[in-house]
Design goal:
The chain is mostly beta strands and 204 residues long. It has one domain: 3-methyladenine DNA Glycosylase, Chain A. It has three helices and eight strands; from the N terminus they run αβββββααβββ. Strands 1, 2, 3, 4, 5, 6, 7 and 8 form an eight-stranded antiparallel β-sheet that branches. The longest helix has 8 residues. The radius of gyration is 17 Å and the shape is globular. It binds a DNA duplex (13 and 13 nucleotides) through strand 3, strand 4 and helix 3. It holds the Pfam family Pur_DNA_glyco. Its EC number is 3.2.2.-. Belongs to the DNA glycosylase MPG family.
Length: 204
DNA sequence: ATGCTGATGGCCT
DNA sequence: GGCCATCAGCATG
């Protein structure tokens, strides 16, 4: 059994920690993923953060100490995982957007039927699926249970841009990724929902 | 390659 | 009741 990974890197604010997680390996239940794309959330004035309007049942883990997983459920079918960073109480976290499967390839394939290897963990919900992370893992302490995070060498280069799928704070370049990685998802501005045509003319 | 859209349910006002 | 830190499928160029 290996010594626990040093996670002191997580103690800083999310936008400073996020790029340092590029290249880190997250392992759970037979599959490990090397992170290639992440996003920072939280802090005092991030309108795009789940914590922006204060502590709620869903976001409460974000307000706790760094080194835990914050996993939420969205769109009625998808899970997304974050690593909570510091300082404690700042409600900061790094969303794990994409990675490469580096262990347990066959298991990951079986969890994502029909997906190409490149797509196995390309996108936050796909990454959770490949790693079998669900709301059951919300709040777990990294390294103490079945979820392990092993930081890699400090990345030397990365790129930044606006976060994906957010209407708020499109100007804040808090998405970080490794250049040239096939598993990095394409940028898409937040979809504005089509309102149902003009009013209530539609029937049921 | 890009673009739209439905699925589907928890979360929050 | 409206809004999603999304994805797959299908359409089109």
């Amino acid at each position: 059994m290996a010594t626990p990974a040093d996670l002191t890197v997580l103690e800083g604010p999310a936008d400073r920690v996020a790029p340092l997680l590029l290249g880190a390996v997250l392992r759970h239940d037979g599959v490990a993923v090397r992170l290639t794309e992440v996003e920072a959330y939280g802090g005092a004035d991030d309108a795009g953060s789940h914590a922006f309007r204060g502590r709620t049942p869903r976001s409460s883990v974000m307000f706790g100490p760094p080194g835990r997983l914050y996993v939420y459920f969205t769109y009625g079918m998808h899970h997304c995982a974050n690593v909570v960073t510091g300082p404690e109480g700042s409600a900061s976290a790094v969303l794990l957007r994409a990675g490469d499967v580096v262990e347990g390839l066959d298991l990951a394939r079986s969890r994502r039927p029909g997906a190409s290897d490149r797509d196995l963990a390309r996108g936050p919900a796909r990454l959770c699926r490949a790693l079998a992370l669900t709301r059951e893992h919300d709040g777990v302490v990294l390294g103490e249970g079945t979820v392990e995070l092993v930081p890699g060498p400090r990345p030397r280069v990365w790129e930044t841009g606006p976060r994906v799928g957010l209407r708020e704070a499109p100007d804040r370049p808090w998405r970080f990724w490794l250049p040239g990685e096939p598993s990095v998802s394409a940028y898409r501005p937040a979809a504005r929902r089509p309102r149902r045509a003009g009013g209530r003319a539609s029937e049921e």
